[in-house]
Amino acid sequence: MKKYPSTIRDVAVEANVSPGTVSKFVNGTQRFSSEVENRLRETIDRLGYRPNVVARSVATGKTRTIGVAILDIHNPHFTGIVKGANRVALQHDYSLLFVATGESQKNERQLLEMLSRRVDGLIVSSRMPDDALEWMRQSPKPSVCFGKLPDTSVPSVGAEGYRAAYLIAQHLVGLAHKRIAFLGFPGARWNAERIRGIHDCLASHGKSLSVFDVEQPSAHGGERACSRIMLVAERPDAVICYNDLIAIGFMKEAQALGFQLPKDISVVGMDNIPFGEYVHPALTTVDMQSERMGEVAMFKMLDCLAGHTDKGFAMLQPELVLRASTMRRN
Amino acid sequence: MKKYPSTIRDVAVEANVSPGTVSKFVNGTQRFSSEVENRLRETIDRLGYRPNVVARSVATGKTRTIGVAILDIHNPHFTGIVKGANRVALQHDYSLLFVATGESQKNERQLLEMLSRRVDGLIVSSRMPDDALEWMRQSPKPSVCFGKLPDTSVPSVGAEGYRAAYLIAQHLVGLAHKRIAFLGFPGARWNAERIRGIHDCLASHGKSLSVFDVEQPSAHGGERACSRIMLVAERPDAVICYNDLIAIGFMKEAQALGFQLPKDISVVGMDNIPFGEYVHPALTTVDMQSERMGEVAMFKMLDCLAGHTDKGFAMLQPELVLRASTMRRN
DNA sequence: ATGAAAGCGCTAACAC
DNA sequence: GTGTTAGCGCTTTCAT
Known about the structure:
Two copies of one chain form a homodimer.
Chain A: H1 8-15, H2 19-26, H3 34-47, H4 53-60, E1 65-70, H5 76-91, E2 95-100, H6 108-116, E3 121-124, H7 131-138, E4 143-146, E5 156-159, H8 161-174, E6 180-184, H9 191-204, E7 209-213, H10 219-230, E8 238-241, H11 244-256, E9 266-268, E10 285-287, H12 290-305, E11 313-316, E12 319-321
Parallel strand pairs in A: 1-2, 1-3, 3-4, 4-5, 5-11, 6-7, 6-8, 8-9
Antiparallel strand pairs in A: 10-12
The structure holds a DNA duplex.
């Protein structure tokens, strides 16, 4: 631990200029006589002066920090988002104030309020009981969300869940599947639109969809739901899972139950988390562009902060990722 | 977006008291006549006053924020750390300023310096070219690191890598393996100690160890290294990987190469990431207590901030997790 | 128990 | 170009 950090005033005194001058120099707000410039440069690194960003923040009202709230940092879909956001933030000299809202006894709303005070804007991925959304609209700080929102006053970015689901269903139908099931998580905001996508596609082929639920949108949740789906008379020959985590859990349990995958049942996930590639059979899924979503969200945020009132929804296109967990029926 | 947030002064005026009084009330620094107390309480929530934490920070010099720097947010070992740290931080009304150092063109040192200015302390998990360590020692803010450090002036927490490695080796020897290999990542700070652990154990049984390297400590790295290990005359009958990610990649590629696991080769990883359970065969590994590490690191940090100069190394005990990727030779 | 006043370190508007 | 002067919103002695 070293001596007390020097302030702008220390520099001013040492260099025989005024604090204001030092400030302007440090921020490149103005040009200087090379005389002063040199003196300043020299003093600054002799003293090892570094601006105090906190003090700067109270003076300017800007923190150059973006708050990022996500549910579960263990879900690679979310870490993808954070990764993308982090990258863009760094490029623009912003930092990320992070909170995993799933981890707290406090309610989400409270957490967001706390976060909000320390940042210039909020990027939020949450279950969002809609009152949080109302709160965001009221907030003086800009927010960006994920998924298509009921109203467009809060900008958001999402991959088109309906289309993603439709694509998967189409793929499965093309593979001649007869009985398709969806293993969803009712607590998730995009559950319904995914069901619609699948349903619409199946309906256009004269097929129906059976829907099952997990209790948790995790691998463990998928494991626990498996037997309910597999150990019945007319079991499905394909199951579409709400996300990859669920799919992976489901596959493990199905195999433990003695089923052969994809021979006995085709399984597909959604998100395209990196691990999908490493399970057996490799998981067919649809890429929901997690990392890109984080990037775009941060770009939108920077836009808001720049005053562009560009609001609105940015739609990313999902992409089918065909691997080995699906196969043609006959 | 709503009206301007009210300040401590607005409250003071409305309630006919001085700003100082409001401050003391808000911070519970003092007791008040119930008269004033009620007036204050009423005005505060009528105005919806919330303290400005940034201004408070410049006045107090404390931010109630801890910086967390990790390399790769996609590695579940690291997200485990963040998760643990986040939980403890939240419990103590601290926030996490997060940066993924692997994501930036800027060097780590610079990133840390930036972070450092906005937080009360730093929790750092990094490749750390040791100059970063020197920097931390010099820094006026407390830091805590992961792993046993060359000197003890910076507190740190780690799972005993030597012991973890020893345990694994012992397990493999007990399973009658003849030719054991280590697939390491030389860039990692704990590579050497893990090698030592394995080596010492093997040596005590009169066995030797062959060491291979990956280029990246990721699943992809493991995949790429696989053929170098497997496609040789006297291939090993067991490989210990530097981490689970590598192990998972290795297994996938080995299977793609036509090998049967664990019949042809036993594979073991380190970390115990949640996914290890879901690959096939389920990965035998050793739990390095990621989440607990994050928690303990944060506790140590809080201790430092409380002035307890408790420094030193906290050692977590690794635990063998036996699954299906290893089997007895004969 | 309450108020007055002096900062915290920095920025920004204005003067010279 | 450079200096002066107010703040930013809050905390914290020190009086009263």
